[in-house]
Amino acid sequence: MTSQVSSPAEQADGTVVGEQRKPVGTKDVRRLDRVIIRFAGDSGDGMQLTGDRFTSETASFGNDLSTLPNFPAEIRAPAGTLPGVSSFQLHFADHDILTPGDAPNVLVAMNPAALKANIGDLPRGAEIIVNTDEFTKRAMQKVGYDTSPLEDGSLDGYSVHPVPLTTLTVEALKDFDLTRKEAERSKNMFALGLLSWMYHRPTEGTEKFLRAKFAKKPGIAEANIAAYRAGWNFGETTEDFAVSYEVAPAAKAFPPGVYRNISGNLALAYGLIAASRQADLPLFLGSYPITPASDILHELSRHKNFGVRTFQAEDEIAGIGAALGAAFGGSLAVTTTSGPGVALKSETIGLAVSLELPLLIVDIQRGGPSTGLPTKTEQADLLQAMYGRNGEAPVPVVAPRTPADCFDAALEAARIALAYRTPVFLLSDGYLANGSEPWRIPELDDLPDLAVQFAQGPNHTLDDGTEVFWPYKRDPQTLARPWAVPGTPGLEHRIGGIEKQDGTGNISYDPANHDFMVRTRQAKVDGIDVPDLEVDDPDGARTLVLGWGSTYGPITAAVRRLRAAGESIAQAHLRHLNPFPSNLGTVLKGYDKVVVPEMNLGQLATLVRAKFLVDARSYNQVNGMPFKAEQLAAALKEAIDD
Fold it and tell me: 185-200 burial string, b = 16+ CB within 10 Å, else e?
């Protein structure tokens, strides 16, 4: 869904919820500047769909927003258990925000497990909407409640709204030809309708969505719409909800343009399509499904009209093998995966380094090692991307910083791959992939020109005057070798994993040639043109916080908090991790203290220490969740004071 905005960004990420109150009819309306809502329930309760619909209506309304879907790590954890809890958190505001929020103002708990799993994150005074129908003795015992938390006083510090969601939903759908079990499935739509009333969200989009989603089952569509409307009407008529809330559109948070809500994986897929169009090359994706990267395969498979070809391979190795073959054939070639898949693809990535062909390796990082935490986020594949191959096999590394930025990062990774004839890593993660935010739809004229020139004929003259094609004769500026499409007359050449002779591409076991080729491939990566690192330092701070990837939002929110409290701190964020920006060393040496927050055990800090001999301090978290702004602000304040 899109919305039109016509004024520039001004406001910062506030730390206090402002409130104005005005009476409307028999109910009060309170105006807030921001709200954080978390929907939580069993993985079969439709919490992700509920959160996604609320987010879509919020985006169409014009609020700034940031989301955090949180899935169970098991495909189908036992119902009603703590491992089976699925949640969706949405932070929306009338000003510029950067994170899904530290603590929910509102929790919708569909069962005892959802309440117990999330109550620890709620501040005192938060609102809890709880489905009382699910608080049976057996369900409570399953998660360790000896007595009902709705009756034992343990929730006295919160504003609790007990609502029999299941009963009310079944009653609302009694005129439909549904079994009780079928009717109960619509209780998430009842909850969505109630929250939509509470926060004055538009309704038309959700009703249209439901009719489209269940187009082949119109009865189910109308039942869900009826439950949705019943939830709205319940909020309007019940005495338990005497107040509703307004969060005005974030008119000042965005530059002028047309916006839509977008997730990181969707933005990345669109970026790949845009790159192929700007390069005038067919896009080929060779992939094997893996959480949390599979959505890219799903999305690209819908766009054959743009010349996109998707191949769901039998395994990770076949996926990248097909992609590398497509690169040899003249396509913009991509393979998508997560950390375990990168390990399997490593030999073929090394082959791509040797062949010097453009190939994008998209790694949507997740908790590891091994299978690890498939649905949780982490940044722990940086060193694998840098060094996870045999021999000297340098590969450029690019990392997006927000869900919407995945679009631009995909274009940048494609630019490097095509211009320098090299595989390129794009390191996203689960937080970016599944999270969403408003994205300004770019003008076509603003997209980069990625046009490439294939080799057309001989490029070298022998001593006897014969003109020949040398597949490893390099561009003096980029050190890229020519890209010769198979079947072009006169451009036949060898490929394979054995070392090539410089220029001719013939197989070579000569020690001096191997040394030269290794150093040349490294020089090509080192010489990639990347922008200088920009530093946000308004008042000459002595402490710098350096981040990469998805830590951008929490770091920036923490820096804003510190500056609002009168602290002096500088911030810089890396998009290019190999090669580093040429001014990075100078920037780092300009500060007394450098702090590097990462969702790993210090991988960027290790690289910075080794390359620049700077005493970078790590601040690390590997619990499968993104940093909280308050947590980072406290750690950075401690570093400043130390």
Answer: bbbbbbbbbbbbbbbe
Alpha helices in 280-338 (DSSP H): 294-300, 316-328
d(CA 441, CA 437): 12
CA distances from 378 to 69, 372, 598 (A): 14, 10, 9
Closest CA to 353 of 324, 381, 316: 324
List pLDDT tens digits, range 394-444.
Answer: 999 999 999 999 999 999 999 999 999 999 999 999 999 999 999 999 999
Task: Find where tokens 């300009």 sit.
Answer: 590
Dihedral, CA atoms, 265, 269, 271, 274, nearest 10 degrees? -160
Instruction: Let me know the angle formed at the C-alpha of 377 by 373 and 383, rounded to the nearest 5 degrees.
Output: 95
Which residue type does 133 have? D
266-294 pLDDT per residue, tens: 999 999 999 999 999 999 999 999 999 99
Cα–Cα distance for residue pair 586/240, rounded to 1 Å? 60
Query: Which of the residue ranges 19-28, 95-104, 477-486, 615-624 would you say has the lowest mean pLDDT?
Result: 19-28
DSSP state for residue 572 in the 8-state scheme: E
How far is residue 427's CA from residue 385's CA, in Å, rounded to a whole number?
8
**Where do runs of H (alpha helix) occur along 179-289?**
180-184, 187-198, 204-213, 218-237, 264-279
The Cα 581–Cα 532 span in angstroms is: 5
Q: pTM to 2 decimals?
A: 0.94
| Residue 116: count of CB within 10 angstroms of its CB | 19
Span 481-516, pLDDT tens digits: 999 999 999 999 989 999 999 999 999 999 999 999
Gap between the Cα atoms of 33 and 401, Å rounded: 25
The C-alpha atoms of residue 524 and residue 638 are separated, in whole angstroms, by 41
DSSP string of 35-64, one letter each residue: EEEEEEEETTS-HHHHHHHHHHHHHHHT-E
Quick one: pLDDT at residue 113? 97
Round to whole Å and give the CA distance between 606 and 603. Answer: 5
Q: What are phi and psi of 604, to 5 degrees?
A: -65, -40
Distance CA 431, CA 376 (A): 8
- On whether the CB atoms of residues 107 and 40 are closer than 8 A, the answer is yes
Q: What burial class does residue 473 get, using C-beta atoms within 10 Å of its C-beta: 0-12 exposed, 13-18 middle, 19+ buried? A: middle
What lies within 8 Å, CB to CB, of 446 at 6+ separation is none
C-alpha separations of 361 from 424, 454, 521 in Å:
6, 22, 18
**φ and ψ at 487, to 5 degrees?**
100, -10
Residue 442 φ then ψ, to 5°: -75, 155
Calculate the dihedral angle through the C-alpha atoms of 326, 329, 330, 331, rounding to the nearest 10 degrees: -20
Nearest-angstrom CA–CA distance, 578 and 136: 55
Helix (H, G, I), strand (E, B) or coil at 243: strand
- Asked if residues 428 and 382 have their Cβ atoms less than 8 Å apart, the reply is no
Only one residue has tokens 């919708």, namely 108
Of 362, 292, 291, give the one whose Cα is nearest residue 320: 362
DSSP 371-385: T-BTTS---TTHHHH
Helix/strand/coil for 439:
strand
218: tokens are 């119109």
* Cα 456 → chain centroid: 40
In the numeric block, the tokens 């500088």 are attached to 570
Residue with structure tokens 């597949």? 471
Helix (H), strand (E), coil (C) string for 578-605: ECCCCCHHHHHHCCCEEEEEECCCCHHH
Q: 128: buried, middle or exposed (CB in 10 Å: 19+, 13-18, 0-12)? A: buried
